[in-house]
Each structure stands twice: as C-alpha cells, then as structure tokens.
Write a structure and sequence with these properties.
Order of helices and strands: HHHH
Largest sheet: none
Shape: globular
Radius of gyration: 21 Å
Distance between the termini: 56 Å
Helix content: 40-55%
Amino acid sequence: MKKLIISSLLLISLSAMAINFTFNGRIEGAKYLAELGFIQKKANDADYNATSYITRAELTAIALKFAWEKVPEPYTCKKYFVDVTNNDWVCAAVEKAADIGLINRNNKNFYPQNQITRPEAIALVLKSSGLDKKIPANISSFEDPEVAFVPN
C-alpha cells in the first residue's frame, strides 16, 4: 500500500511538473529570445504573453532582426499600406521588410494586427534567415496527409 501511495504521489508530481514545464518552457524561450535581442525584455513573466498569438506586424519586426536589418530612426512612412499609420512603429518595420523583399507590396493592406498564418510565418522566417535559398528546387510542396495544415 505504501508503494502505491508513493507511486501515485510521484505520478501526480510528474504530471504537475509536465504541465508547468510546458508554460515555463515558453517563458524560458521568450527570455532567451529577449536576451538575444529578438524581442523586448519584460519586467515579469506574465508580460511575455506566452500563450498569446503573434501578429503579422510583430513577426515582421522579428524577421528583420533575423535578417540583421535595422529599422531606420527617425522614419517617415511612405504609405505602402493604407492600414499602417504614419506614427506607428509598424510602418518603419513593415516598409523596411518590403524594401528588402521579405514581404511584397502587391496588396494595399497589410493587416498588421491580424494573426499571421502558418504559411506566412514559415515564408517570413525562411526568407529572413536565408534558409529559403537552401531548399532544393525540385521540392514543389510539403505534404503530410496526417496533418490538416499543408503549405505549398
């Protein structure tokens, strides 16, 4: 009986640690990115919003850092996108990303506060890191029939 109680307590402890590790792993990851300068350092863990989604504008700004590009300061918005305001930090980041080819200007809207889609995020990370040039040309799509998300 004693072994059963100890085993049960151990299992409960490990389960609690696994749940806690998932959240804390996100926090530790965020702190690591902040130390590297990819995201802003926060005063306390809750301010990292570790369970929130990222916006198109936020990932674009991070992608510029992956590409070793700086956002010019001061910056006057050229109005590539009608939904990005002149006095917004987003304007400088988004327009710089467009100028260096990370994003295109085909659309007049950027939708900076929308959540970024998986294909957009993958494309942005690949382009900004230079990994897009290392993908073999004969690969036309990545398909996994077990997953609903299939980027082409």
